[in-house]
Structures are given as structure tokens and as C-alpha cells.
């Protein structure tokens, strides 16, 4: 178990917000956790892969243009020196629609302790249904576009 690495990831998750009205992500605090060449796969399998700090910032800002009330609640966390995994119950409001969702996220850390890879495993069909996407469209090109973090 690597407590320092776990605290690092938990602090980054806290920077997304506390779920209250008006709470907004601290983008600078979040960005400080990424290596220059970090990658973020928004959902596994098949989700887009965002590469590099500039692209990561743009993706976070894009999501924050329609997502509010962010909160990450960690159920379980496991770690080693270079990997931290969380099981989470996250919450947000996406274009006015409450979107509670569960996920597992894997964070790989580089030699400086910064996030160099981040992969999220979640049920995009569940999120699509919450958005009102008809079941026959789930799995289509827009079904998984609900990623929040």
C-alpha cells in the first residue's frame, strides 16, 4: 500500500468539487497532478484517449461547460508505488439531469509521482439511459458521450 500516492489521487478527486450548487472544479489543482505527456481514456473499452496537458485541460473545460455539482466518493482504494486504483460512486448534473454513476479508475504514476495514464471503467449504457438515449442507440456514436471524470 502506498499511502502518499493514495492521498495524491484523493486530493485530485476532491478538486473536482463537493457536489453542492455552485461548486466548480479547481482546474489548476487538477492540472498540477498530470505529467506533460499524460493520457486519459474517458471510458474503457472504446472511449476516446486524450493526450497531453493542453488536451486534458481542454477536455476538462469542455465537460465543465455542461456538467455541474461534481462529486467523487471513493468506496475503495488500492495502490502500489506506481499505480492507484479507485472504486467510486460519482455524481454530477449533466445539462440539468442528475447522473449518479459508479466506476473504477486506474491511475499510473510516473517517476515523479504525477499521473501519466488514467483509465476509467464505467457503464456507459447506464449513463446513456439516464440521459434519455433510447436503448437501441446505446452503444452508438453518442451513447457514451456523458463522461464526467
From TrEMBL:
Q: Which UniProt keywords apply?
A: Hydrolase
Q: Which Pfam families match?
A: SnoaL_2 (PF12680)
Q: Which InterPro entries match?
A: NTF2-like_dom_sf, SnoaL-like
What are the GO MF terms of this UniProt record? Answer: hydrolase activity
Q: Which domain of life is it from?
A: Bacteria
- Residues covered by the SnoaL-like domain: 24-117
- Please report the name of this protein according to its UniProt entry: Limonene-1,2-epoxide hydrolase
Record the organism.
Pseudomonas grimontii
Amino acid at each position: 500500500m502506498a499511502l502518499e500516492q493514495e492521498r495524491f489521487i484523493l486530493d485530485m478527486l476532491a478538486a473536482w468539487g463537493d457536489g453542492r450548487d455552485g461548486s466548480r472544479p479547481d482546474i489548476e489543482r487538477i492540472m498540477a497532478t498530470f505529467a506533460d505527456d499524460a493520457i486519459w481514456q474517458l471510458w474503457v473499452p472504446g472511449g476516446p484517449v486524450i493526450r497531453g496537458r493542453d488536451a486534458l485541460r481542454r477536455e476538462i473545460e469542455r465537460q465543465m461547460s455542461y456538467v455541474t455539482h461534481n462529486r467523487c466518493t471513493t468506496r475503495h482504494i488500492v495502490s502500489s508505488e506506481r499505480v492507484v486504483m479507485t472504486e467510486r460512486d460519482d455524481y454530477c448534473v449533466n445539462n440539468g439531469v442528475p447522473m449518479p454513476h459508479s466506476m473504477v479508475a486506474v491511475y499510473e504514476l510516473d517517476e515523479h509521482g504525477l499521473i501519466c495514464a488514467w483509465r476509467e471503467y464505467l457503464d456507459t449504457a447506464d449513463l446513456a439511459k439516464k440521459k434519455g438515449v433510447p436503448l437501441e442507440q446505446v452503444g452508438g456514436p453518442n451513447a457514451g458521450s456523458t463522461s464526467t471524470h
